[in-house]
């Protein structure tokens, strides 16, 4: 009989590559992580350049707080984060990131370069994400440029699961839209293979929703704002008469984070139930604001799932708010249909 295999610790790179399986599903998931980092850094303008559906290149330039020279290598280290320090922080987390895993994961399956300059620094520093590399001086205005090249160059098995360039880019564009809807105060531009896909100016939530979902959506939607309270629902939802054949315009956010949540989807379906034919889908862009301690975002590395402490209350609240907005009598201007 063969002796049983010995137990040993995995090398760091392999640990990151395993973790990357959860975070880096495709180019769009890299893009999501990099965009969230730029937003967490307090950026007011973000430029995104993508080549070949994001497989060849994803470059994000921001004007956020930057990373200090001596922390560039740490930023690429697993479980290194500037966003939380304790369990208490985790329970009240207000940033999009907190796991300190994304950059390390991306760096383990692609070529990653960070160039960053903090306000007050004489110049920028660049770190090429290879083990043992040290930062070199670079030229850049304050902010950060994160460049990811050649996704899965060292994990060919993963590369096989990538779809056609157009499909991967469509996922990237959708990721940008989801994030852009929740951050109307940040100017965002997206270019693919050198061609501008869209350029979103800073504005208010309605202008941003109009730019992404169409001005006719805003013109024909009911506006919801339940006002301050333990839970608040703000946003726009389409009237049944303006429903769509596809369910491709349904955006739900919890504390600024896009979520795909069965409970919320169910509450919305119920609210529309008696007003929509089975094959029609409402369009909505709704933001739930709730005490961060009342929701757990640490369910999955990609963080598109959440768990509410009191899920019944959230369901009821969303259901009633949307139902009320939809049943506001005609004649009142949609923009005034505030619940
Ligand atoms: P997390 O976002 O969970 O902290 P990441 O691996 O995504 O983990 O990033 C690690 C750290 O690198 C962040 O905590 C942050 O301090 C820094 N960082 C990453 N991207 C940026 C950026 N665009 N601007 C400023 N700091 C950044
Ligand atoms: Mg992050």
From TrEMBL:
Gene Ontology terms: cellular component: mismatch repair complex
Signal sequence region: none
GO annotation terms (biological process): mismatch repair
Positions of the DNA mismatch repair protein S5 domain: 209-327
GO molecular function, one term: ATP-dependent DNA damage sensor activity
Family stated for the protein in its record: Belongs to the DNA mismatch repair MutL/HexB family.
Protein name according to UniProt: DNA mismatch repair protein MutL
UniProt source species: Propionivibrio dicarboxylicus
């Amino acid at each position: 009989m063969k002796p049983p295999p010995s137990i040993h610790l995995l090398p760091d790179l392999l640990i990151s590559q395993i973790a990357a399986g959860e975070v880096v599903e495709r180019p769009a998931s890299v893009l999501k992580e990099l965009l969230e980092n730029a937003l967490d850094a307090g950026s007011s303008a973000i430029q995104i350049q993508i080549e070949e559906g994001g497989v060849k290149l994803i470059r994000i330039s921001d004007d956020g707080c930057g990373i200090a020279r001596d922390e560039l290598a740490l930023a690429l280290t697993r479980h290194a984060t500037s966003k939380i320090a304790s369990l208490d922080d985790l329970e009240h987390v207000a940033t999009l990131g907190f796991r300190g895993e994304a950059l390390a994961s991306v760096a383990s399956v692609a070529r990653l370069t960070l160039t960053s300059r903090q306000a007050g620094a004489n110049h920028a520093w660049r770190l090429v994400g290879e083990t043992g590399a040290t930062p070199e001086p670079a030229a850049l205005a304050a902010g950060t440029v994160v460049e990811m090249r050649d996704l899965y160059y060292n994990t060919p098995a993963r590369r096989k699961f990538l779809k056609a360039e157009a499909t991967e880019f469509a996922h990237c564009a959708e990721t940008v839209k989801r994030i852009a809807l929740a951050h109307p105060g940040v100017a965002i531009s997206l270019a693919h293979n050198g061609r501008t896909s869209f350029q979103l100016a800073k504005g208010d939530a309605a202008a941003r929703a109009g730019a992404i979902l169409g001005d006719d959506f805003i013109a024909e939607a009911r506006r919801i704002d339940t006002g301050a309270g333990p839970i608040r629902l703000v946003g726009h939802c389409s009237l049944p008469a303006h429903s769509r054949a596809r369910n491709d315009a349904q955006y739900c956010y919890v504390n600024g984070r896009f979520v795909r949540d069965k409970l919320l989807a169910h509450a919305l379906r119920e609210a529309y139930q008696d007003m929509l034919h089975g094959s029609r889908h409402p369009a909505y862009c709704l933001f739930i604001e709730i005490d961060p301690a009342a929701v757990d975002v640490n369910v999955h590395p990609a963080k598109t799932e959440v768990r509410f402490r009191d899920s019944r209350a959230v369901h009821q609240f969303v259901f009633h708010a949307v139902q009320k907005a939809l049943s506001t009598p005609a004649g009142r201007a949609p923009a005034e249909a505030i619940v």
